[in-house]
Design goal:
six-stranded parallel β-sheet, four-stranded antiparallel β-sheet, 2-epi-5-epi-valiolone synthase, alpha/beta, 20% strand
């Protein structure tokens, strides 16, 4: 998928452009760009270019692919009177009205993380039965260690037995980022693409996995080595899920939020710097406590800003045609680190260790002042995130960057902060800079980070 480079103005051979029109249910090619008249039912955005050379004939198909998906905040998604989970993905008002008038029961297949099932299973069952849904709930241990093609195939097998309509009955994934990734891949494989819905139950999934198009599983001891770019039909965000996850997992999600703050939004950085500890204490819930109105404003402001900055970067580059991606900050070294020490580090924790080191690289390159670097590190520690790990060796860093070269067109494409809330992509960071930054990082954070 993605952009197809094709120069229609190349005159080395004879190219003929054909539009595609549908007449009485049959698609036909029509010469030239103007293809509509009174007899035509539909005109496709696709084109066929026919090329004739002395070597023969070839056809080039240019077919735009458009995905539309919704990211929707809601409250009390498991309240039986809230139909968002069942119907919130439908954008056609007539289709929605027809479904509501129909006597045919809705049919849904749901995959839920088994730990989430322990907490919310009874409420989910009550919700589905109250809405007279024909359903199947599949609880699975969706941990990083189990993030495999075998689990994706297990989901596909159960979906096949349940017999879903592949266009109108979306699979629903309820859980953290691992659950959303695996279900997304399974849905993309079943009947080549079955719609699915994401319902994140962790903060990290709320602001990261739920808003993009990536799906995937681990393979050959590499993180997300197999996957596809198939966005969900919709993502439904309910902050109330966050109140039942451990404090460490909230801190884990704050790492991805901090990533966007450092890269793109100084205001978000300052919010996390000032209110991060309060967000941890309140678990992003609007509750009456010593923090007062600050809590009511900071939580939605932080999540919405993080999501919006993430969507700004993802929407124009959903299939990663452009490999220069600011959202890769913290993701050059962390995949290898995370897999190396699995399961001792959570994803966001590994990302933060990567970011911490890269902040030292920025300082060594003269892109950040000492004050800016120290503010970032103090903010990380304030969010209760690790800033150093003994397994993040210079050898692992070099290996990760070599792997980066292989998969990024021969360039490192290293996102680095050039201020608070500003970043650029660099391809010219020398080994000497990396090594000096590493030595200072280890000297300053390896033994003394607890006092920051």
């Amino acid at each position: 998928m993605g952009k197809v480079p094709f120069d229609v103005n190349n005159t080395k051979d004879k190219k003929t452009e054909f539009s595609l029109v549908q007449v009485k249910g049959t698609w036909k090619r029509k010469l030239g760009k103007k293809a509509s008249d009174g007899r035509v039912d539909r005109v496709s955005a696709a084109k066929i270019y026919e090329s004739i050379t002395d070597k023969g004939i070839s056809w080039t198909v240019v077919s735009p692919i458009v995905f539309t998906y919704k990211v929707t905040e809601t409250q009390n998604i498991l309240d039986p009177s809230n139909d968002t989970l069942l119907l919130g993905h439908i954008t056609d008002s007539q289709q929605l009205e027809d479904i509501k008038k129909s006597n045919k029961p809705l049919k849904r297949f749901l995959v839920i993380d088994q730990e989430v099932q322990k907490i919310y299973g009874p409420r989910l069952t009550e919700y589905l039965e109250a809405n007279k849904v024909q359903y199947k709930i599949l609880p699975l241990p969706t941990t990083e260690e189990n993030k495999s093609m075998e689990m994706a195939l297990e989901i596909i097998k159960e979906v096949n037995n349940f017999s879903l309509d592949r266009r109108t009955e979306p699979i629903i994934a309820i859980g953290g980022g691992v659950c959303l990734d695996i279900v997304g891949l399974a849905a993309s494989l079943y009947r080549r693409r079955t719609p699915y819905i994401r319902v994140p139950t962790t903060l990290l999934a709320y602001i990261d996995a739920s808003v993009g198009a990536k799906t995937g599983v681990n393979f050959a001891n590499c993180k997300n080595k197999l996957g596809a770019y198939i966005p969900p039909t919709a993502s439904f965000l309910d902050l109330s899920f966050i109140q039942t996850i451990p404090r460490r997992h909230i801190s884990n999600g704050l790492a991805e939020m901090l990533k966007m703050a450092i890269m793109k939004h100084r205001g978000l950085f300052e919010l996390l710097e000032k209110h991060g500890h309060m967000l941890l204490d309140t678990k992003f819930q609007a509750v009456n406590n010593v923090y007062g109105c600050n809590n009511l404003q900071a939580a939605p402001q932080a999540t919405r800003t993080a999501i919006m900055t993430m969507l700004e970067e993802l929407a124009p580059n959903l299939w990663e045609d452009d490999l220069n991606r600011l959202v890769d900050f913290g993701h050059l070294i962390s995949p290898a680190l995370e897999m190396e020490v699995l399961p001792s580090l959570l994803h966001g924790e590994a990302v933060n260790i990567d970011m911490s080191y890269m902040v030292y690289v920025s300082k060594e390159r003269g892109l950040l002042t000492e004050e800016e670097m120290q503010r970032i590190i103090r903010c990380m520690v304030g969010l209760e995130l690790p800033v150093w790990h003994e397994a993040c060796t210079m050898e692992l860093i070099q290996r990760s960057l070599q792997d980066r070269l292989k998969h990024s067109g021969g360039l490192h494409r290293m996102p680095l902060p050039v201020g608070l809330g500003q970043a650029e992509i660099f391809n010219d960071t020398s080994y000497e800079v990396l090594h000096r930054a590493y030595e200072k990082w280890c000297d300053e954070l390896g033994v003394s980070s607890k006092h920051l």
